[in-house]
C-alpha cells in the first residue's frame, strides 16, 4: 500500500471516509459490493421502477472556487429525484459517484454530507456509492460528482401527456435561485467577461455571489408527492437545462401547447442582474435559466384551487403561471403584462 500511496492514492483514507458516511447516513450496509434496498410491492398493483441520473455541472467550479462544499451534494440528489418525481414516482434510493485527485477526508465528508441531506429531503435512502481517487485525472482541488436515483410507481398512475387536456391550469413552484443550470454562462459573464469576486454582491441580490450562486437546488418530494398520490396532478415538468421551452414541451401531447403569462410569478433578482450585466436577450435567459420556476405542474381546472392550497400549506411558493391551449407542442411566453 505504501507504493500505491506514493503514486497518489491513499486506500486508508478511503476506508475512513466510508466509515464516516456510514455514520452520517445511519446505513451500516454501506461498503458492500452492492447497495441493498428491501422492496415492498404490496401497495402497488403494477409496479414499475423509474430511474434518473445526473451530475451538478459547472456549478462544481463555483463550489471549488468558494471552497464551500456542504450543499453541492443536495444539488446532485435534487437533479435526479426531481426527475423521478416528475414521472409520478416515489424516490426509493440513491447512489453517488465522487471522483477526486487527492482524497481530502474533510472535504469529501462535507460533499457527501450534502448528499445525505439531499437524500433525507427526498425521503429516500442512500444505499451505496463510489469514491475514486485519480491523481492524474483531477488537479488543483477539482472533483466530479454524479449519481442516480430509483423510484417506484404504479404503471397506470404514471404522469404522461395522455393525462392533459385543453384548459388545464399551470402552477409554477418557485425555484431556489439558479438551481444547477446555466453555470457555464454565469461564470462567463461574471468571472471571464467581468472581474467580479465571489464576495461581491449584485445590486438586486440579497446575498454575496458566493451564497447566491451556491443556493442548493430545491427538492420537491415532500410537498408534491402526496398530491401525486391523491391523483390530483395531471403532469409535471422539472425545469432544468433548456428552461421552460424545452422542459415543458417534453410533457405536452401533439395537440396542445402551453401558454405562460410572464409577470405572473417572481423572477429571481440574480437572473435579471445576469441579463443586464451580460447584455442577454430575453430569449437567452428563457432558454438558459429556470426564470424562478423549479417545477411546472399541470392540473385540471376543478383541482387547481385544492392543489394550490395544499402546496402552499406544504411550504411552497405557488403561482398560477398559465394554461394549456390547443396547439402543436409549443411553449408560448406572453409578455403582455410587461
From TrEMBL:
Where does the protein principally reside?
cytoplasm
Q: Which InterPro entries match?
A: PurM-like_C_dom, PurM-like_C_sf, PurM-like_N, PurM-like_N_sf, PurM_cligase
- Domain PurM-like C-terminal residue range list: 165-333
Recorded catalytic activity of this chain's protein: 2-formamido-N(1)-(5-O-phospho-beta-D-ribosyl)acetamidine + ATP = 5-amino-1-(5-phospho-beta-D-ribosyl)imidazole + ADP + phosphate + H(+)
- UniProt keyword Ligase present: yes
GO BP annotations, alphabetical order: 'de novo' IMP biosynthetic process; adenine biosynthetic process
Could you tell me the keywords of this UniProt record?
A: ATP-binding, Cytoplasm, Ligase, Nucleotide-binding, Purine biosynthesis
Q: Which GO terms describe its molecular function?
A: ATP binding; phosphoribosylamine-glycine ligase activity; phosphoribosylformylglycinamidine cyclo-ligase activity
Pfam families for this protein: AIRS, AIRS_C
What is one cellular component GO term in this UniProt entry?
Answer: cytosol
Protein family (similarity comment): Belongs to the AIR synthase family.
**Descriptive protein name:** Phosphoribosylformylglycinamidine cyclo-ligase
Which taxonomic lineage is given here? Answer: Bacteria, Bacillati, Bacillota, Bacilli, Lactobacillales
Q: Which gene encodes it?
A: purM
